[in-house]
Amino acid sequence: MESINTMKGYGKVSDQENQVHHHSPLPKPSSSSYRKTLIATVSVVSLLLILAVVALTAGAFTHSPSPSPPHHPPISSASLKTVCAVTRYPETCFDSLSSSLNESDSKLSPESILELSLRAASKEVSRLSVSFRSINDMPEDAAVGDCVKLYTDALSQINESVSEIGKEKNKGGTWLTKEVVGDVKTWISAAMTDGETCSDGIEEMGTVVGNEIKKEMEMANQMMSISLAIVSQMKKLLVILH
Length: 242
Fold this sequence. Notes:
The chain crosses the membrane at residues 38-61. The structure is a single chain. The protein is mainly alpha-helical. It has helices at residues 2-23, 31-63, 74-84, 90-98, 110-134, 142-170, 178-205, 211-232, 234-241. The longest helix has 33 residues, at 31-63. It is elongated and about 100 Å long.
């Protein structure tokens, strides 16, 4: 009987063990582990999205055309070349006046080019006048003193031309009248005579001036010549460009 009870005892123990095995729940993952997994997944997805955006942006920049450098409008350049062609110094004319153009100058007229040339001439003559004053420290060198006076007068003549045009423009309507053209021609011719007189005096007196002043003299005289040529050929230019 003891052996049977023992066997029954063993059987009870076995049944309890089976119940333990069948009814014990599986261990659940901890909340911290779940959060770590979720964070890792979100991080990977976010990284992939960022890489995709970067790739698309890089592709857009790579294939988009680069912006064109600033340039003068073609019509302005063509008009300027036509006007400069009537002068003795077409290259100097174009290089000097084109630097004064901007994007708003979609079409230049002979009148506006004349104004540009007068302002450029005024700038060069003013610079030269200052240079002569800077070396006018030798009383015995009369040629330099004469050049100071001559280019001061030349500058006054050019500025008178600019002022006359400005006054006529303020009146409205067509300002480039026969009288204005005649006055400008007279003033620029007088300014050029001043420049030639200075050059002749320096040569006759054997006055030595620096190479920089010689270059400034050449540039000033060329710009005055350009303005005179433009105003002298204005009637022809108006027919060509209008």
